[in-house]
Amino acid sequence: MTNITTISSADSENKLYKRIAFLGGAAWKEDEEPYIRAFDTAKLLAENDYEIFNGGGPGVMKAATKGAHAGNGKAFSITYHPNKPKRHYEGTDPTNDVDMEIVTLDYFDRTKVLLQNTDVHIVFKGSIGTLSEFGMTWVSSWIHEPNSKPIVMFGDFWNEILDTIEKNLFIKPAERKMLTICNTPQEVLDYLESLNRN
Predict the structure, then answer these.
(1) Strand order, beta sheet including 100-104
(2) What GO cellular-component annotations does this UniProt entry give (predicted)?
């Protein structure tokens, strides 16, 4: 598996949870709420010495990069470049100007490398790609519990989705408790800071 090296500030090196993966929809535009929320969150986290990771595409991924740079931080992408266009894969965005790119073998490898090489995963509103990423981090964290990675679900709407999942599938209470709902960038920062204090 690819090693990811980063240039970290002294403060960032002291954080146990410092590499933050941004997961979310590729279709969101700059004037739409999920993009704005991802940008604002990445900016605030970068200002507080967190490193921002994403899949190198448009939407939430690009917002994360732009936010990291606005916060004087760095953004890193884990990408997949298919050998021929895939009709339903967003690919990479040339305007997502990350500081370092790691190229992986395929879509599933991209997700795996992104999740394995980050410490906390934030899930914004998206489509089925976001659901696949969410499912992968959720089950992986459950399998590796108590050494699981914190998962932040950004937005109250996730409660309704999780309630429906819990109602119709066999979900253990401890599995649901692995997920933390945050509604603002400040709530995300406060949660991360609490993790790093413990």
Answers:
(1) 100-104, 75-80, 51-54, 19-23, 120-123, 151-154, 179-182
(2) cytosol
C-beta neighbour count of 118 within 10 angstroms: 25
Token pair listed for 112:
């795996």
pLDDT one-digit tens code per residue, 161-181: 999 999 999 999 999 999 999
pLDDT in tens, 121-159: 999 999 999 999 999 999 999 999 888 999 999 999 999
Alpha helices in the chain (DSSP H): 10-13, 33-47, 60-70, 107-116, 128-143, 157-168, 173-176, 185-197
Please determine, looking at this structure, whether the domain spanning 19-81+92-197 carries the CATH number 3.40.50.450.
yes
Q: What are phi and psi of 55, to 5 degrees?
A: -90, 5
Spell out the residues 6+ positions from residue 147 whose beta carbon is closer than 8 angstroms to its own: none
Spans of all domains in the chain: 19-81+92-197
